[in-house]
C-alpha cells in the first residue's frame, strides 16, 4: 500500500450535467475531487434550486463530496453588472473562480478547477485567463484541461442519468438571450385580424 497521499482538487461546479465529464477525467488522472457549488448568477430562484438539487442527487450517485453555498444572492450579481451587461461574464467568472481559489487555499487543497471549462457555450479562453490570474493572486495552482473534448460524452451520460439539463447559462441576461425573440423577428400580435 502506497504512503503517498492522493492529491485533492476543488472543482467549482456550475451544474450537474457539466460535472459529468470533468469529474471522470479528474478521477482518471488520480485526483481526489471535491465539488464546490457557488453560483450567485442563477435566476430565477426556482432554477437555482433545481440545479442545486440535481447536483446533490448526482453527487450521491457518484460519491462526490460537496461544499455548497446555498444562499441566493442574485441581487448582488445584478448590482455588479447593471449598465455593464456586455462585461457580465467577466465579473461572473472572476467572482466565482476567486471564491473557489480562496476556499481551496484556505482548506489545504492542492489545486482548483472549474466545470465552466466543459461547456461549448462558455467563453473558454476568458475562463482560462481569469483562472490563471486568480491562481497567481491567491497562490494556489489552477488545473487546466479543455474538458470540451468530452462534450458529447457528458451530454449522453447526463441524459442516461436523467439529470435536469438547463437551457441557458443561468443569469437573467442569458435567459433573455436564449428565449426572447429579437425585435425584428417578433410574430404579429394575436390581435391582428385574419384576412
Task: Describe the protein's architecture and organization.
The protein is an alpha/beta fold and 195 residues long. It has a single domain, classed as Rossmann fold (3-Layer(aba) Sandwich). Helix content is 45%, strand content 10%. It contains seven helices and four strands; from the N terminus they run βαβαβααβααα. It has a four-stranded parallel sheet, sandwiched between helices. α4 packs parallel to α5. The C terminus is likely disordered.
The CATH C-level name is Alpha Beta
CATH superfamily: HUPs
**Would you report the number of β strands?**
4
CATH topology: Rossmann fold
Q: Strand order within the widest sheet?
A: 3-2-1-4
Total domains, how many? 1
Into which percent range does the helicity of residues fall? 40-55%
Q: What form results from the Cα inertia axes?
A: globular
Radius of gyration, taken over Cα atoms and rounded to an integer in Å: 19 Å
* Uncertain runs: 188-195
Number of helices: 7
So, CATH architecture? 3-Layer(aba) Sandwich
Structural class of the helix and strand makeup?
alpha/beta
Order of helices and strands: EHEHEHHEHHH
- Tell me the span between the first and last alpha carbons: 82 Å
- Mean pLDDT metric: 90
Query: What is the beta-strand fraction?
Result: 5-15%
Q: Mind describing the biggest β-sheet?
A: 4 strands, parallel
